[in-house]
Amino acid sequence: MNTAVDDYTMPGGGANIASLPKVSLHDHLDGGLRPQTIIELADAVGMAVPVADAAGLATWFADQADSGSLVEYLKTFDITTGVMQTKEGLTRVAREFVQDLGADGVVYGEIRWAPEQHLARGLSLDEVVEAVQEGLDAGADDVAGSGGSIRVGQLISAMRHADRGLEIAELAVRHRDNGVVGFDIAGAEAGFPAGKMREAFDFLARNYLPATIHAGEADGLESIRGALFDGRALRLGHGVRLAEDITTSSEDDENTYVTLGPVAQWVKDREIALELSPSSNLQTGAIEQWGDELVDHPFDLLYQLGFRVTVNADNRLMSATSLTRELFLLSETFGYDLSDLAVFQLNAAASLFLPLEEREELADIITAGFDAA
């Protein structure tokens, strides 16, 4: 990943996007490891890696992930989760994750991960959550020590194909005073609707813990509908295929008419945030019905229609990206200016799983940072 600060000035000159305050809603812990860290942690536990140098390994991940299939994309996580099975590995990865967010100008990040995938070497569910929180806290201290400021929260994910939804929901609630701010379900989407974990979502609702649900990435409107009404999702993880419920027609050369279906209308009217991840959506084939280039992504359509769109990196390692880079690519593709990027960040701040007053404080930080750019 190319993260040189001077690479991401706004198209046409002006502010450097890396220096602007940003909010990250959708960023996977096991998708943001440093390649050198993978090599060192793999060596410590006797695990083989496909490429032995950091630059080559970074390229391998990007090439493997660029498959056009979510299933193939997810296979790369066998390596990253493989080195995150010890307290030391989890704490180091979490600490570096926050350091990297801070270096990218992120002032608040919600970091999602699935504790059930990190038990192979004997740690308990509670122990892995505690190890990650220790790393997150250390990373935030590191950012503060270098003159920056960042806050983070954990989003605890349950894997859709496993039968542990209620157990993981209980884990999330148990640690809500130790860094956990919300719940998620992740993994293979098609065939594993949110309704299969209805008991978990009922438990979360009774305990007032919010949920964001992966939906509308590898499956369509039924998956989104299930996330909204079975999972009570306050945000949609990706949600890009919501555009399937939007019809456009042109009766002449000057006017285009847009009709929203009932699911799209519900999402728009309730300002349910769409955690869009442009590069990832291209890699996994989530937008293949519209095309295979960024200009084909329905991001701009959703934005122009007034949906609460947000911009996210999803998996920084697999997509060889950062939040700054995603914003730069969108600006370059759709001609967005600083005022547009500010909207995306304010949308994200408004959608965080934080108390209202804290969301408003972050909005003030974002506005001040963009006004000064």
TrEMBL record:
Signal peptide region: none
Keyword list, A-Z: Hydrolase, Metal-binding, Zinc
Pfam families associated with the record: A_deaminase
GO biological process, one term: hypoxanthine salvage
UniProt-recorded name of the protein: adenosine deaminase
GO molecular function, one term: metal ion binding
Residue ranges of every copy of the Adenosine deaminase domain listed in the record: 21-367
Taxonomic lineage: Bacteria, Bacillati, Actinomycetota, Actinomycetes, Micrococcales
InterPro entries in the cross-refs: A_deaminase_dom, Ado/ade_deaminase, Metal_Hydrolase
